[in-house]
Amino acid sequence: MHSIFSRINNVSALLSSCMMALFAAIALSSFVFTADPKGDLGLLSVKVYPASGAKKAHSKQELAFVNFNVTADLRPLFHWNTKQLFVWVEAEFNNTKKSENAVAIWDRIIRRKDDANLKVSGKNKYMLRELTKSFKNAEPAHYTLKYNVMPYVGVLTYGEAARTNAPVEFPLVQKRV
Amino acid sequence: MQDYLEGKIDFVGQQRVEEVARVVLISTTALSFIVGFAMQSLAVTFGIFGAVTAVLLLAVVPPWPMFRQHPVRWLGARASN
Known about the structure:
The structure holds two protein chains of two kinds.
Chain A: H1 4-29, E1 39-52, E2 60-73, E3 82-94, E4 100-110, E5 117-123, E6 128-129, E7 142-151, E8 157-163
Chain B: H1 2-6, H2 11-39, H3 42-60
């Protein structure tokens, strides 16, 4: 402590310990906030169309097109340690090969509390297709609205805000429109 | 020039610097967490923490006169027999 550099050294050593304690306290404080907001997810229509393959144009696959409504007030998830929310709509279905599929068909990043009152009427942003290239053997799908809370400091937490009441069947493939 | 950069302070001053740094840093950590939590704002937390740290460094690092008020008084040289 006799010279400038030893004083800087001493203060910054304690400073880094205090910073770690502060970060730990902030991370732990997130667990105090246990908001579990619920919303609604309604399906307007599900249609299946034939399309060309993902990699080879001459191969065939089926694509599903989903129109849905989302209303969810996720504002309670914003507290002092929330940086942003990642919200997505997921289609969950099994096929006869007993593979469990969970496909994100729509998502959104919410950075501000003001934007967290979701009222969205949308369609799938991402292709919804089946591993076997056909929805013929796919079982009816559950659609869910899920969220991921990203903090400034701490662990990611996940939750489910809405789920369709009953599984929704994939319709038969239609002719090209 | 070298003395100026080295910034020596006396023993009493060294002890005081250590106490001040410890008390201020630990209490600031607690205070900034409590105030930030109450106001639900991380900006407040790190604003308080950063501002107090800057003031502390300014107060403690340079060899201010208040840390040099107890210089060691050496005994005078004694003539040897």
